[in-house]
Amino acid sequence: GKTRMIQFISELLDGKLIKLDVHGGITQEDIIKTVKEAIVISRTLQPSQKVLLFFDEANTCRQLGLLKEMICDGSYNGKKMPKNVVVIAACNPYRLRKTQSNQSHNAGLVFKYRRHRIMNVTE
């Protein structure tokens, strides 16, 4: 869904796509390494071509300040990014979830899993 749409946009723009699947274990160094990779690629392209830097499930990591800086300010750790590097992020839904004591609510990610029943098919 999301990734395929971003790939399609990248193809329409005759650009390059770099995707990072974000999770709770992603560090600031991991993100900056990906940004630097995008910058290196951007220097090999024509000025009209774009590098789409896609962070999937961005709100699942602790590096939201860095991601905000890249998306809103166009920089990382105070360093400006090239104009042909476009940062895109997708987020999971954010919902309230009850604590185990059911006395208060904490904000957080809630994942719902579907259960499937597997039945044997007999001949």
Helices, by number, come to 3
β-strand number: 7
Inertia-based shape: globular
Give Rg in angstroms. 19 Å
| Helix-residue proportion | 25-40%
**Structural class of the helices, strands and pairings?**
alpha/beta
- Contiguous runs where pLDDT drops below 50 for at least 5 residues: 103-107, 110-120
Describe it for me?
A hairpin with a 2-residue loop joins strand 3 and strand 4. The chain is an alpha/beta fold and 123 residues long. The chain starts with a helix and ends in a 15-residue tail after the last strand. It is built from 3 helices and 7 strands, in the order αβαβαβββββ. The strands form 3 sheets. The chain has a 3-stranded parallel β-sheet, sandwiched between helices. The chain has a two-stranded antiparallel ribbon with strand order 3-4. A two-stranded antiparallel sheet has the order 6-7. It has helices at residues 2-12, 28-43, 64-73, and strands spanning 16-21, 51-56, 75-76, 79-80, 85-89, 95-98, 105-108.
Summarize it.
With 123 residues, the chain is α/β, with parallel strands linked by helices.
Secondary structure elements and pairings:
Elements: H1 2-12, E1 16-21, H2 28-43, E2 51-56, H3 64-73, E3 75-76, E4 79-80, E5 85-89, E6 95-98, E7 105-108
Parallel strand pairs: 1-2, 2-5
Antiparallel strand pairs: 3-4, 6-7
